[in-house]
User: Fold these one by one.
Assistant:
Number 1:
Amino acid sequence: MFQENIPLSYYSNFKIGGPAKYFFEAKNFNELIIFLESSRAKSQRIFILGGGTNVLFDDKGFDGLVIKPNFQFIKKDKNTLRVGAGVLISELLEFCLENNLGGLEWAGGLPGTLGGAIYGNAGAFGGEIKDIIREVISLDISFSRPEVIKRKARYCNFKYRSSIFKASKNREIILEALFEFKKGDRGAIREEINQRIDYRREHQPLEHPNVGSIFKNIDVRNTGANRAIFNKVIKTDPFPAIPAAYLIAEAGLKGISCGGAMISPKHPNFIVNVLDAAASDVENLIELSKIKVYKKFKIELEEEIIRL
């Protein structure tokens, strides 16, 4: 469906963002192709939207075209699943549970869509989405006629919270992916998923609008920081990493607010919308965190979220 001047706050977990000049939600591949070949899609700045769980939209909105590929299908063949980009991770987990398929338990409680998870190589508790992907199908829209590309997982350039799709800067639209799971015990799968969900509820500020971790954790292999100082807090992510939340807390920023936004006292790598925050409020807290952490530790924080 093609629309104009749609508030992006409707599509943001942050509940922040001005209007998109143009907005198009495609429910299948044919709808997407027909729209892309229309005059309305020509010569526009384009942003590809997943679940809005990792994006900070500008207060002024987006003077271009937002495309949401809302492809909703899960097709099973033995231990493989072909899944549309618009399927929520929670829905995929429920399907895996019903069919006794293991490998995605680490994603219990993870928000957002499959497309977004692939785009940023989502991960938690030592697992990453790349671990169970066999191939990804995308649509390269940089050509005069969009071109379908099928890649094996090893060619998707998956890295820590990144992929070839993220590096392409909205040149490619993720359409679907093929996953390979392992057969498992339903009770054990359910228990592990619930453990992850319970952990998130206990340790993350889910009671307020947020977009998850603002900053990437710091790979101790690629920093000049004295590792001995951080030995007690180093975690596996899936490499040895210093939690960004620890650095922000040690910089004295827990509970600091700006306008309607606040650095969460519960999890300092989350910024929460507690009182009708503006994007500028969040941006100010992001910059403050970078400055204070660098001043104290000489470590540069790198954003995990996308700013539009």
Note: Residues 208-307 form a domain with the Uridine Diphospho-n-acetylenolpyruvylglucosamine Reductase; domain 1 fold (CATH 3.90.78.10).
Number 2:
Amino acid sequence: MRQAIGIGFSRETDSLRATELALQQAVKSSGPPVFTFLFCTDQYDAGEVFKAFKNTIPRSKMLGATVPGIIIGNNIFREGVGALTIFSPGIEVATHLQEGIGRNSFESGQKAALEIKKQGVDAGTVFLLPDGLAANISGLLRGFYDLSEDSYSYAGGGAGDNLKFYKAYQFTEDGFAADALAVALIKGLEFRVESGHGWNSIGESMMATRAEGKRLYELDGIPAFRKYSEILGGINKQDFSYYGMKHPLGIPSRKGETLIRDPLSVNEDDSIVMVSEIPSNTMVMLMRGETPSLISTAEEIARRASTGKSASFALLFDCVSRYLLMDSYFIQELEAVRGQLCPETPLFGILSFGEVINRTGSPLFDNKSLVLAVGGA
């Protein structure tokens, strides 16, 4: 059964025109798509992007979001509109846009799972694009998993803006919204999904003795920044953004894996604002990641995900904080991933605000990580 993939990209400044050009370029290779991944950076108007999609390929299912950057091959674009279109008569797709996820994250996840189930697609890979700026994304994913089928596997990443921390939009073919979760379940197109990060712990474990949402107040009963600074030999609050990028916190699991939690800023009361939640009374560790270990981990992830033969495409969700930390060396990470894929396999992806991983059978939210889904052989 014929399967065809198309990738399109445009940096035109007009939102409508850029989206039309990206989609037209992709469709030229794929033919009329059954499904489309559509991403744009925050310089583009979400309403115009959605309008262009409906005007250009109105019969396609779609999943998309605003993101900090778009990845195509070994290139990263901080401005533009990118599309990946899929023609394959053998696939089934269910999509849903769950709005208002910040009001009750767990319940919103449950509602999204039920809406996907109603569409009759009973197995496959679930791609989840939560608003990366929303509160309690971990709870959202737990809610989704609570009412999901055991046969699902998971991948995805958080939508975000260009580090303004203001607003991000999520898309399906039915609409677009901020503070939302966009979901697509794809059956009939096989994916090998792998994830990891390359960060290692330093020092002893600590207890997050007081935390609320994304705000960490105490570590081992000591104001969080004071304890954090102590482990690093004493740092100033003015330098926190530098050290926070190089030294996130990690939450160890029973299986020896570690979830990463990215520090964002420090407050006057020495509490630390995190990108993602850390529950109270959770064991955490200070982490360190050097560029070589991050790149070698990306290479290993791609090696595990590769089928050893040409696949239809590879979809990458790579944390924007890795990009910021590695700077010009980030291209080496993309090259390491590409080097483990067959030369004919196109690489398409995004910089994400957190990543949806599938290490334990259920979807988990991670930071400073990457997720690679290699699909369709």
Note: The chain has two domains: 4-196+294-375, 200-288.
